[in-house]
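Hi R.,

Here's the chain you asked about this morning:
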Amino acid sequence: MIVVGVDGSPTGLLSVDWAAKEAVLRGVPLTVAHVVPDWVCHPLPGRYAEVGKWMRDGAREILADAERQAREQGAEVTTELVPGDPRAALIKTAEEAELLVVGSRGLGGVRGLLLGSVAHGVAAHAPADVVLVRDPPAVPRGEIVAGVDGSEGGRRALEFAFAEAELRGARLRAVQAWAWPRPSGFEPADPEAEREAREALRLHLLVPRQGHPSVEVIEDVVHGHPVEVLREAASGADLLVVGTRGHGTLKGMIMGSVSQAMLHHAPCPMAIVKVTSS
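And here is the predicted structure, written out as tokens:
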């Protein structure tokens, strides 16, 4: 099952379109979820009654529009009106899902689905892999980009990226940034370090390549800051895939301010692939 969160924003409908196509590719059902405050789902007397009814009617319209759009893509769809805080409610709804899809920005206010800490919370804490949907490229280039760094999160990202490339008939660009920081900046480019990075990337790709022999792979080793390297590589891509340990902090190739930058500024839809704690 795939879960997609909607809030009535244009980005929410883009998310539905992306999630519906993905559900058809995977052959799984799609659940469209819209979150409202708890009290909206429980009719109240007095002056709040009309406000609650107005919000419930609006929520039903949002879900109906999203369901219609998903069915146009051929997806098997159910809808769910979920009470609570958007972040916690979506995380709970996705407990049994294999993928949670959300928009990169929402409407703001009570119904804003993904703004600031909410976006980070959903991406970091959801039990399922998460895709943040942004405007797709005007001319898709049929390419999935994966960040590689040798960590367990990077390994899972590669597995996810290979599977996506195979589903879509796309090529895979495996990207490894090989700059190391020092007090004065980043280490300068060095031929020996580059050779080591290329050999490391080749080794990281051996196992997933065997499982997906039909996928065309581009090995891309770039000297530079991981954020800039990934942003440039993913420009115009169908999907950027990065890994995380799933405990609230993105690890490996993107850490701290780097993870924030990718969450907010990735130039294409981005998949955040989780590693289950042992």
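One quick note: Residues 161 and 241 are 6 Å apart (CA to CA).

Cheers,
M.
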